[in-house]
Amino acid sequence: MRICYNYFYIFLCFLLLGNSVSLAQNGMQFSVPVTYYKAINDTVSVGYLVSRPLLFTDNDIFPKQSNGKDAYWLKLDFSGYSDMLEEGISYFLHAGRFLEVQSFSKAKDGITSRDFGYFNRRDIAAPNLPTRGILFKKSELFQNSFLLLKVKRYTSNKKPTALTFTFETEQSHQFRNTYLTKREMISQIPLYLFIGAFLFILIFIVITYGTVQRADFLFYALYIFCLLLYLGKSAFDFETFLNDNYPYIGYLTHSQLQIWINLFYVSFAKYYLETDRNYPKLDKAIYAVAILLFSFLVIETFLLFTQSFEAHFTLMNIHRSIMSLFAAVSLIYLLVFAKNRLAYFIVIGSLAFTAGALGMLFTLNKNYMIMGSSLEVLLFGLGLNYKIKLHYRQQQKLKQEAFENKVTALRAQMNPHFVFNSLSSIQHLITENNKEAAIKYLNKFSIIMRNLLESSIQGNIVLSEEISLLKKYLALEALRFDDSFTYNVSVAENLDVHSVEIPALLVQPFVENAILHGLRNKSGNDKCLKISFKKEKRFIVCEVEDNGIGRKASAERKSVLKIPKKSRGIKVTEKRLELLNNSEENSIEIIDKINAAGESEGTLVIIKISIE
């Protein structure tokens, strides 16, 4: 039931909107002919001009900028509409975008004046003062045919002679301000799409900045925010509210936003391109421009609140000229000296914005500026995304180099351990005057050392080479202990030892530990060591199994002899495996083999080596 009610409500709204649009289209506006007169030093009275309407001409008497001293009079002629104008009906005159205007009309006791425009010299705040027109009646027209406007200040981008003066009924004007025509609705679509897209991007960038805490994201967000205010302030009647109630604030906001936009733009470019490191000359130029723009903000505020409009227009023209020149030179500089693709995002985005600004300048269609700004912001966003990707790749590369250096350092710690043990064995044979065994041992040791030195150039070696080194080491140890133990190395069928790489001498410390602490201290002739390799998912699993005295008996013996409980070689290997497997999970599992009587039958060590 509630769903049906919602649909009915939406349907009713569309009906009312449709009727409103059709009524708005019926309201007509009529053009008013205008003639002009210039009064030097504002010395002419209203009564004088009313009695001499022929003083007004069609000549363009307006300079490029008003000086605030001379008065420019406009005569709006309604004689062609004398039959259409009705007594007692109020009409609204659309007079355009003036800063300060006085209108003069007939009254019962003589002549009355009213102020309108952006600013009123007698009241800076000028609350609720009409900005773009006045209400009048037929009875208020001089000689039943014309009104007079006195203009002392006007916007610099348009002379009054270029403006079109129109009028309509007060009712039609109020209706037009309340409802939109179909054409107006269609023309507003790009604006609201722009606002929605920019709000979404702004929220995303702010959230991202909260995560990454980088200056380029901060200034990118501020740049988008100022663009959103500048281009989207006409939405939701925000601009009208400021102009009607707080004209100085509205005009100041409009002017200063242009400077803030450029200030945040150059700041974004500085941190995005890292100009201090990549483009030192451009960095100095950006620093100078930023100081200049900040100075403009201070001066602009002072000029507007002291009503120095001519200086204000001059300052804004200087600002636009400097920024245009800076943008042109900077873009050419980046095209010539670009060090990476990041510069091209700035160049293409800035060109898109410039194209949109020029389109709005020549056509007075704000949609061109909206499209140019949207494309620029999109390209800047893509540039930031590309920069993050480059940064991530660089971080990964640094991490990989750090990992390889750490693994190399750990392997360097382990190799001296192996070398020391081997040389100790050779020394033992020599002291026992077993020259033949010492020579054989030294010969095999030299072969292993050569292989180790060759493998040290690379971080990893092929598994077949690791097995070959392991067999040579086992042969050394067997020779050292008079072949008192047997050994066997096996490889599962599912494992291709010629295509898999692992770090060198990763298994050797566990084999050494099994021989020295498990088998050597065992009595009898059945000492056996088994080493096997197999593949399980993303791991190479190596099992080192001995039938020695077991860890408990070995630990007791170490305690008596005051030998450290854990060999340094195994500690180093555990760290190497932790780095290699990129996990803090145990990559080594040690199992004590116990028979039914509770006696030790040796030790099984399971080693998992990641191959991904």
Describe it for me?
- The protein folds into three domains: 149 residues, Immunoglobulin-like; 210 residues, Rhopdopsin 7-helix transmembrane proteins (Up-down Bundle), CATH 1.20.1070; 177 residues, Histidine kinase-like ATPase, C-terminal domain (Heat Shock Protein 90, 2-Layer Sandwich).
- It is 57% helix and 17% strand.
- The chain contains 17 helices and 16 strands.
- With 612 residues, it is of the alpha+beta class.
- Strand 5 and strand 6 form a beta hairpin.
- Strands 2-3-8-5-6 form a five-stranded antiparallel β-sheet.
- The protein starts with a helix and ends with a strand.
Provide a concise account of the structure shown.
The chain is of the alpha+beta class.
Terminal residue distance: 59 Å
Gyration radius, in Å: 44 Å
Give the second-level CATH assignment, the architecture of the largest domain.
Up-down Bundle
Class from secondary-structure proportions: alpha+beta
Strand content: 15-25%
Average predicted local confidence, pLDDT:
79
CATH topology of the largest domain: Rhopdopsin 7-helix transmembrane proteins
The biggest beta sheet reads:
5 strands, antiparallel
Low-confidence stretches: 1-26, 121-129
Bin the helical content: 55-70%
Task: Write the SSE topology.
Elements lengths: L1 H25 L3 E2 L2 E6 L6 H6 L19 E7 L12 E5 L3 E10 L2 E7 L16 E5 L8 E9 L11 E4 H9 L3 H31 L2 H18 L5 H8 L1 H27 L1 H4 L1 H26 L3 H29 L4 H22 L2 H66 L3 H21 L4 E3 H18 L5 E6 L9 E3 L4 H12 L8 E9 L2 E8 L3 H12 L6 H14 L6 E7 L5 E11 L2
Parallel strand pairs: 11-13
Antiparallel strand pairs: 1-9, 2-3, 3-8, 4-7, 4-9, 5-6, 5-8, 10-12, 13-14, 14-16, 15-16
Helix pairs in contact: 4-5, 4-12, 5-7, 5-12, 6-7, 7-9, 9-10, 10-11, 11-12, 12-13, 12-17, 13-14, 14-15
